[in-house]
């Protein structure tokens, strides 16, 4: 094993102390949740093989931790995902909570070739690449207004990763994350990291929130089509729209009053 793979990719089969640290921290953070209700859909998680996971809506920080909890339970290697996230998080999230192996930081406007090499290494080693379809908690684009609920347009990056490596996509709907310190970075700016810790302790002590998590059936239509959509961007956008349609349907079913934003009734499918 090369040092770089161990440091970054979360696919090294050898036990690492960092694995226990990750699991321990996740266990503590999940104490902020009273219950994670899945209705048995975790059976849709494949036990092995490369996998791309995309979730929506993204309106908190607990979603990756909750999803990893079930990935570790179902996957043969007992590992969670390698999370692709915006580069700003490298400064906003304390390193003790992330580690280089668990996150790939990306400039979404100008992604470097090294990002694609890192993603390829994870998937070629039967690992999991995961991210939010919206790309940000502020999916509607209303950063100034602090709108973390309204659903934004899905980005095609995860379909690109999956198509390039012939990997199925596991769509995941997570509802309720906005109730658990949805914007810790704003608390940090005003009160420092100790302010974030105080709020987290309050949440863990209360532990009265419910997360609804639905692992939808594997999506693999992008693996068997392509000739009818010769343009790459058209292909990626087509399958991103199909995934959005399936996931928004589940969001509507679970929470009829959820603000669908870009995908509101009569909107953009």
Automatic annotation (TrEMBL):
Pfam families reported for this sequence: Acyltransferase
Residues in Phospholipid/glycerol acyltransferase domain copies: 52-177
Alphabetized GO MF terms: acyltransferase activity
Protein name: Phospholipid/glycerol acyltransferase domain-containing protein
């Amino acid at each position: 094993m090369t040092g770089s793979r161990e440091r970054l990719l979360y696919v090294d089969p050898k036990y690492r102390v960092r694995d226990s640290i990750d699991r321990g921290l996740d266990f503590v953070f999940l104490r902020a949740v009273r219950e994670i209700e899945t209705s048995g859909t975790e059976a849709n998680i494949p036990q092995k093989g490369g996998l791309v996971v995309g979730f929506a809506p993204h309106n908190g920080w607990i979603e990756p931790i909750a999803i990893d909890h079930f990935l570790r339970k179902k996957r043969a290697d007992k590992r969670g995902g390698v999370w692709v996230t915006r580069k700003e998080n490298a400064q906003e999230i304390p390193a003790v909570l992330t580690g280089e192996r668990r996150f790939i930081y990306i400039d979404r406007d100008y992604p470097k070739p090294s990002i694609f090499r890192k993603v390829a290494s994870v998937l070629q080693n039967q690992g999991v690449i995961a991210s939010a379809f919206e790309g940000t908690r502020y999916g509607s684009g209303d950063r100034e207004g602090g709108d973390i609920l309204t659903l934004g347009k899905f980005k095609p990056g995860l379909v690109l990763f999956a198509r390039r490596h012939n990997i199925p996509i596991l769509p995941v709907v997570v509802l309720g994350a906005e109730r658990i310190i949805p914007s810790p970075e704003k608390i940090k700016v005003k009160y420092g990291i100790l302010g974030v810790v105080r709020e987290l302790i309050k949440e863990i002590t209360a532990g009265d929130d419910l997360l609804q998590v639905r692992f939808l059936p594997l999506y693999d239509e992008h693996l068997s089509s392509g000739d009818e959509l010769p343009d790459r961007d058209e292909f990626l956008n087509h399958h991103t729209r199909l995934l959005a349609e399936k996931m928004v349907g589940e969001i509507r079913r679970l929470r009829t009053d959820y603000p669908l934003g870009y995908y509101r009734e009569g909107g953009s499918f």
